[in-house]
Every structure is written in C-alpha cells, then in structure tokens.
C-alpha cells in the first residue's frame, strides 16, 4: 500500500491533544492528506498503470475521468472513487486509503452495499461484475 505519510494517525491524535493547534498545524503540515487527484496519480504510477488504462477499465465517461485526474473536478462522488479503485484492481486497504484521500467514508461491513463491494474486491470482480452483484442484491448504488 502506498503511504506518503510518516506519522501514524494515533500519534497525530496524541499530538493534537497535547499541543496548541497553531503548533500542531505547523509541525504536521507534511502529514495532511494530499489532494485526491495527486494521490490518484501516485497510486496509478505505483501500480504501473496509465490514466488511459484506468479510465478504460472504469467505464467512467472519458472527459469526466480526465477532469478528475487533472484535479479540475475536485470532489468526485464516492461511487466514482470506488469505480477508480475497482479499475485499478486495488485491494481493500488500498481502496480504503483512496476513499480517505477523497474525503469520503471508508467501506463499512455494516452497510449491505459496502459489504457487497468489499466481497467484490476480495473476489477481484471488475466494474460490470460488481454492478451486477449489487443489482442482484437490490442495491441501487452501482459503481461509476
């Protein structure tokens, strides 16, 4: 899993409790989440993929997907983020990190739709197969 940060989250929580916010912000400026499009580019390169490959596998409209990659579209929906994760064949930890960088809630096994997506990740299903599984269990939150 790609992790551009040095400190653990628990360490940051402890620091936040024990120092003034102005000092915390100054001390930890390199620990804050990088913009989603930058993290998306990092993980794409780390996986040895190209934007073209990811966009093709995602089934997201090409122009819209390029806007996400460039940062022009800064707040893609959670389903779009999950679609990119699926297209890049990310494992669960990598998917959770991608969701975190997009400022969306991570997948939760207490949610039926999220449980299906988690199962699809473990089975390495692609976007159409994942959507078919979601429809099979009457979940309207399809990817992409």
Give a written overview of the molecule.
This protein is mainly alpha-helical. The protein has a single domain (35-136), classed as 434 Repressor (Amino-terminal Domain). It contains 9 helices and no strands. Helix 4 crosses helix 6 (78-87) and helix 6 (78-87) packs antiparallel against helix 7 (92-101). The longest helix has 12 residues, at 112-123. It is globular. The two termini are 23 Å apart. The model has no long low-confidence stretch (mean pLDDT 91).
Features:
144 residues; 9 helices; single chain; 434 Repressor (Amino-terminal Domain); 60% helix; mainly alpha
Task: Explain briefly what this protein structure is.
The chain is an all-alpha fold and 144 residues long. The protein has helices spanning 9-18, 21-27, 36-46, 51-58, 62-70, 78-87, 92-101, 112-123, 127-136. The protein is 60% helix and 0% strand.
């Amino acid at each position: 899993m790609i992790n551009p940060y040095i400190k653990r989250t628990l360490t940051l929580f402890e620091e936040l409790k024990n120092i003034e916010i102005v000092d915390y912000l100054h001390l930890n400026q390199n620990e804050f989440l990088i913009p989603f499009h930058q993290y998306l580019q990092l993980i794409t390169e780390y996986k040895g993929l190209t934007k073209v490959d990811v966009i093709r596998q995602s089934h997201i409209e090409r122009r819209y997907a390029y806007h996400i990659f460039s940062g022009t579209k800064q707040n893609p929906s959670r389903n779009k983020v999950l679609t990119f994760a699926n297209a890049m064949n990310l494992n669960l930890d990598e998917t959770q990190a991608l969701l975190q960088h997009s400022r969306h809630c991570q997948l939760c096994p207490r949610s039926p739709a999220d449980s299906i997506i988690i199962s699809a990740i473990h089975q390495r299903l692609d976007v159409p197969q994942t959507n078919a599984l979601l429809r099979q269990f009457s979940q309207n939150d399809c990817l992409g």
